[in-house]
Amino acid sequence: MNILVVDDEPIIRSGIQRTIERAFPQHRVVLAEGPEEAVQRLKNELIDLVLTDVLMPGMNGLELMEVSRTLHPEAKWVVISAYSEFEYAKKAVRLGARDYLLKPIGKDILVELVKKMSEEIAERNVRAKESELLKHNLRFLREAVFARWASGLDLGGIDLASFTEAYPDFHLLMVHVESDTDTKLEHFIVENVMNELIASAGDGFVASIDAKSLLGLAKLEESGSPARLIEELRSCLKRYLKKPFQLLISGKIDDPAQVPAEVRRMRESSEYQVYDHYASGGEQAVEVALQYIRARYGSELSLEKVASVVYLNPAYFSQLFKQKTGQGFKDYVTQIRLDRAMEMLGESELKVGDIAERVGYPDVRHFSQVFRKKIGCTPSEYREQEKSKC
């Protein structure tokens, strides 16, 4: 049996591990210090039992349980809480937790609980587990094929007849998470939330189309409402995500051949759509704006456009931005672009014109003028100076 222990306190993690391994040397115990590491364990390994702390930095144990249960229905969950957090434990049981442990955890109680859980898990039919694994692999194959198809790539002769029969009509949902840092945890959250809501509204699945975007296919029941599905999805993502995101939905599609073109349209329209974001208030709004600027410095970045991303009046946003960063909006964007340009001039053989375009200056003459004014030399001179240092 594979047991995952999730707790941000190293002493508790190692204590639980030692107790279980001494009493049950046949079981394998893996550790995670928080939700992000737990997500990777759940994605990459077959976990039978999860022991998770309730209160941890970032996502708490109940939220981890909620976003994980759709893709990992076979895992049994036990929550760990202090007496003062007992209400969390009761809620966890309502969510489907098999049991709970109160801190400080008694060794005898822990051993008895693991024994009980291992007996229950041992009763599972081996064939059922193999069948689940096969279904799991087929799901990944289907999603991989759908992702290639949606991106307009060649399918190598794969027959889509079974797909078109199963989904005679459907809607596409796209979620794009904006960040200049790793989005693995956000990807996992979005995938699980989308799968659960699509299943509750009808039938379908979710596929990853790039590092920041997921595409869902939803065949709604006759009484199903696309607007209701979108609002439920937006509400859940605002609750769980800690980064700004976009949410788009297509009209009803009854011709699968329309999918690649519709996905292209959704990607293009996302360039002009404002972002939902988890936080409110000035400091959080500026942080969202900074993430957006760092991710999109190569495209048009007007004050008005970025202000709309964080739902603020442009004049107020301009004052707030300078107050929080110490720089005016235009100066900050220029500095970001020139910093990236200097990196490329020093590390690549790209032409100056290509670099200018990549950092948001389609006019290379204007780029050179700005560069000289701010840096004190032309881009070509800067490149020569960098080469002479080597």
Give a description of the structure.
- The chain has 390 residues and is an alpha/beta fold.
- Helix 1 packs across helix 5 and helix 8 (184-201) packs antiparallel against helix 9.
- The chain has 17 helices and nine strands.
- It folds into three domains: 2-124, Rossmann fold; 133-270, 2-Layer Sandwich (Alpha-Beta Plaits), CATH 3.30.70; 282-389, Homeodomain-like (Arc Repressor Mutant, subunit A, Orthogonal Bundle), CATH 1.10.10.60.
- The longest helix has 25 residues, at 126-150.
- The mean pLDDT is 84.
- A five-stranded parallel β-sheet has the order 2-1-3-4-5, sandwiched between helices. Strands 7-8-6-9 form a four-stranded antiparallel β-sheet, sandwiched between helices.
- Helix 1 links the parallel strand 1 (2-6) and strand 2 (28-32).
Which secondary structure elements does this structure contain, and how are they paired or packed?
Elements: E1 2-6, H1 10-23, E2 28-32, H2 35-44, E3 49-53, H3 61-68, E4 76-81, H4 86-95, E5 99-102, H5 107-122, H6 126-150, H7 161-166, E6 171-177, H8 184-201, E7 202-208, E8 213-220, H9 226-240, E9 245-249, H10 259-270, H11 282-296, H12 303-309, H13 314-325, H14 329-347, H15 352-358, H16 364-375, H17 379-389
Parallel strand pairs: 1-2, 1-3, 3-4, 4-5
Antiparallel strand pairs: 6-8, 6-9, 7-8
Helix pairs in contact: 1-5, 8-9
* Major sheet attributes: 5 strands, parallel
How many H/I helices? 17
Oligomerization: single chain
Question: Helix coverage percent of residues?
Answer: 55-70%
CATH class of the largest domain: Alpha Beta
Strand order, largest beta sheet: 2-1-3-4-5
What's the CATH architecture of the largest domain?
2-Layer Sandwich
Q: Total domains, how many?
A: 3
> What is the CA-atom radius of gyration, in angstroms?
25 Å
